[in-house]
Amino acid sequence: MQKTALVCGAGGFIGGHLVKRLKDEGFWVRGVDLKFNEHAETRADDFIIGDLREQSLVRSVIDRRFDEVYQLAADMGGAGYIFTGEHDADIMHNSATINLNVLDACHKRNIKRVFYSSSACMYPEHNQLDPDNPNCAEDSAYPANPDSEYGWEKLFSERLYLAYNRNYGMECRVARYHNIFGPDGTWDGGKEKAPAAMCRKVAVAEDGGVIEVWGDGQQTRSFLIVDECVEGTIKLLRSDFEGPVNIGSEEMVTINKLAEMVIGLSGKDITIKNIPGPLGVRGRNSDNTLIKEKLDWAPTEPLIAGLETTYKWISAELKKRV
């Protein structure tokens, strides 16, 4: 019998890639989102345009038992969206409402396996002040002190999913994503993540030109290509480990270094100009000790390979606009 999956947030970047992977595995897939993916045609067998904040819509989407449910829908974006403070109420209300609705509907349909995508933004700010030695081990989450309301909502929702495991016998799985990037993702408009923004800036810049980078550029991060994220996501959902667990790369770089890598791929002579802007924490890097232990897996693709693929794709997208 053909297996079935539901992907909430299927019109988004990671959700779109997840749908493709599940289709390649032979699943019948239903996707739901506020919009279709702007960059790639969906491969979902059934795609519903709808708002998961509305209980009636959620009931119509979760109208059967699915073998696997992936809950990626959220109100989110890059540093320019989640760290300014201007969207805090919307971020917390919208994402929490989606999670409450989807999880309860799954419980009432006796759906056991639900994946929830949390974020490294839930880690305590005080453990991420040193850009050279951030602590993002899973057990460092408490005492809790996320640096943004986005992180606080993620932490609440983690606890929500794990509470449903304890109280209702569900088998939800929780992962903390660390800066996922790649083709078919947002690359302009204010919600794009750092790798996509950097690729766009470099692709647009003239040879001999200048690109702007927020802060002093010494803040550190790690970035994971989306194909590896999807692999880790599926492995976790089908495992006996509930999490939370990091899904990210341990290849940490400064933001200036990230810019330099993209400039190198472009073959252009471009200068970096550091300017004031929203930064988030000073340092963040995935700790993959636990995922190696529990799933016998960790991502291996080097950052430069993912950046090369992403830069080529964004450059091609820009040319379509000319």
TrEMBL record:
Pfam families in alphabetical order: Epimerase
Keyword field: NAD
SUPFAM superfamilies given in the database record: NAD(P)-binding Rossmann-fold domains
Entries under Gene3D superfamilies matching the protein: NAD(P)-binding Rossmann-like Domain, UDP-galactose 4-epimerase, domain 1
Domain NAD-dependent epimerase/dehydratase stretches: 5-248
InterPro entries in the record: Epimerase_deHydtase, NAD(P)-bd_dom_sf
Descriptive protein name: NAD-dependent epimerase/dehydratase family protein
